[in-house]
């Protein structure tokens, strides 16, 4: 369930808060067992349910008052469907305040009609149009579009994705941002490919946008410019904007911009040291700023005026020299960085970084090391850092990091240490195996372990490993609330062990992912029994790709009708 009370696309809507949302569900790919459960629930649950039927594929939705219309990623939504949903919602007295059309590809060719529908709704709090509807809009019309839609949105969050608008489109868009009626706070401009240079934002586009950011009317707080090469002139213009007291920008993404290099970073970094600069989040993924660019950025982080709290740096060509400079900045008392995403370091680098994590001045709470060669040796160095009293890390991402059982055991040992503050471990696509799972299970039973979320998707865990984790879940010391075991070989035996754990009063698990685990009917039936137990606290269960047949589906359907069942989201 989303934070606003709506239910996520792709899951079966089971329960919802009263009078919050109407959601269209693209359920054409749902297996027959899913339809069996849906049909059995329709009479018993007042869910915000819209669905495409198997026969006739006609839209059916409940009589449900709403103020949110969420159609994200619904491939079957066209203008007629949108018009029907809006009419039925408004005719029943709903005052729509938020509309999400993200990923609705069929709306591309009829945007003029979509716009007319939206204008007819009156003023909205938020409008999301990401990933599809606007990609073919003529750049010359972009500013007019923004002005028209902004005039009907009160603007808490206005998320617009437009691609390939080019420098000319950027200039007209910037003019719209300076309009007093424009309420836009977030702007996403992403080119699908580098392609034709005429579609690039470029220095001219950046200069126009930078001028808009300095206007007192501009309310932009988030700017995403993906695959829009910008040079030194653009960096200088952006830097001037960040120094301006009127500029409200807090988040800047310049991912995969081929034109951004060390000279760009050297031109932009000094702006981060200005007292007026409000930037807190900077993404430079796939941007080749090199060691020199990282050094300029590190100098900014050491400045008392710099407010950066989140920095994403992957694929930057920084090398060990650049990353060591960044590590040194973490030791500075002025550095406010709390979230960092970087590439892996060689083992010598790991030892140096370990000392930085243990520095009293280091404020890092979240570290991302994704798709990197951390290996067992790197995991051992990280484990040593986690045991340091000064280390404040609460979230660690080590996905696809080539860590095996030995590295897993080292991290498990750290989790049992009183100084370790880790609450979330993202560890998917590593070779954990049953031995590693057993080590983690032992750690979960330790009173010192603070882990609440553990992701072990695609980590070669079998039934034996699942059984060890199930035992841990029944321990009073275990604090785990979220467990991901998708893409493993848990099987029916592992599912039955986990089901037994869910029935234990000590088990605190609220989310369990068992996608693609050959759970089958036997495992589904065991989980269904657990769902009917008063002790079971599970709210989200993912069972897709498990070969569940009619028997398992009937057992789950019966469980969902039980008064003790607390499940809100079920994936099949």
From TrEMBL:
Protein's recorded name: Uncharacterized protein
Matching SMART domains: LRR_RI (SM00368)
Subcellular location: Cytoplasm, Cytoskeleton, Cilium axoneme
One cellular component term from this protein's GO annotations in UniProt: axoneme
InterPro entries for this protein: Leu-rich_rpt, LRR_dom_sf, NLR
Pfam families: LRR_6
Organism: Cymbomonas tetramitiformis
Keywords of this entry: Leucine-rich repeat, Repeat
Transmembrane annotation, as ranges: none
């Amino acid at each position: 369930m989303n934070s606003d009370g709506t239910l996520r696309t792709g899951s079966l809507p089971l329960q919802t808060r009263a009078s919050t949302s109407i959601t269209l569900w693209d359920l054409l790919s749902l297996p027959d067992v899913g339809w069996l459960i849906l049909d059995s629930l329709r009479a018993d649950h007042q869910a915000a349910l819209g669905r495409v039927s198997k026969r006739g594929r006609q839209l059916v939705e409940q009589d449900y008052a709403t103020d949110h219309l969420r159609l994200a990623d619904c491939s079957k939504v066209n203008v007629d469907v949108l018009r029907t949903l809006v009419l039925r919602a408004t005719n029943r007295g709903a005052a729509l305040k938020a509309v999400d059309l993200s990923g609705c590809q069929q709306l591309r060719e009829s945007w003029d009609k979509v716009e007319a529908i939206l204008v007819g709704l009156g003023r909205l709090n938020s409008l999301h149009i990401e990933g599809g509807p606007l990609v073919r809009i003529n750049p010359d019309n972009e500013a007019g579009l923004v002005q028209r839609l902004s005039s009907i949105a009160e603007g808490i969050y206005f998320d617009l994705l437009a691609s390939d608008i080019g420098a000319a489109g950027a200039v007209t868009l910037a003019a719209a941002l300076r309009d007093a009626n424009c309420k836009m706070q977030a702007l996403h401009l992403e080119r699908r490919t580098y392609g034709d240079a005429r579609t690039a934002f470029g220095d001219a586009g950046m200069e126009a946008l930078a001028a808009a950011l300095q206007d007192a009317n501009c309310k932009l707080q988030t700017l995403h410019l993906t695959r829009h090469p910008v040079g030194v002139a653009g960096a200088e213009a952006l830097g001037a904007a960040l120094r301006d007291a009127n500029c409200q920008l807090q988040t800047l993404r310049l991912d995969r911009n081929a034109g951004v290099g060390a000279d760009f970073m050297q031109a932009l970094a000094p702006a981060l040291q200005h007292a007026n600069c409000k930037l807190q989040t900077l993404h430079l993924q796939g941007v080749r700023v090199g060691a020199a660019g990282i050094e300029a950025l590190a100098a900014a982080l050491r400045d008392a005026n710099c407010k950066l709290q989140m920095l994403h740096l992957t694929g930057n060509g920084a090398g060990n020299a650049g990353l060591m400079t960044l590590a040194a900045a973490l030791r500075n008392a002025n550095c406010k960085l709390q979230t960092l995403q970087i590439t892996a370091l060689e083992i010598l680098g790991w030892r140096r970084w370990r000392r930085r994590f243990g520095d009293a001045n280091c404020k890092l709470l979240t570290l991302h090391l994704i798709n990197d060669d951390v290996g067992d040796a790197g995991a051992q160095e990280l484990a040593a850092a986690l045991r340091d009293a000064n280390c404040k890390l609460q979230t660690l991402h080590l996905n696809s990091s080539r860590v095996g059982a030995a590295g897993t055991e080292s991290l498990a040992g750290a989790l049992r240490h009183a100084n370790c503050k880790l609450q979330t471990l993202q560890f998917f696509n590593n070779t954990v195996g049953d031995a590693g799972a057993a080590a983690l299970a032992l750690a979960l039973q330790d009173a010192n372990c603070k882990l609440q979320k553990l992701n072990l998707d695609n980590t070669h865990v079998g039934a034996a490993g699942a059984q060890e984790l199930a035992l841990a879940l029944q321990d009073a010391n275990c604090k785990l609330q979220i467990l991901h075991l998708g893409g493993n070989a848990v099987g029916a035996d592992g599912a039955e062990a986990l089901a037994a754990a869910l029935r234990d009063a000590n088990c605190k698990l609220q989310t369990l992912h068992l996608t693609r685990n050959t759970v089958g009917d036997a495992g589904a039936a065991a989980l269904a029994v657990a769902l009917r137990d008063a002790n079971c606290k599970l709210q989200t269960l993912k069972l897709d790709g498990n070969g569940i047949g009619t028997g398992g589906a009937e057992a789950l359907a019966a469980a969902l009708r039980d008064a003790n069942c607390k499940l809100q989201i079920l994936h099949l």
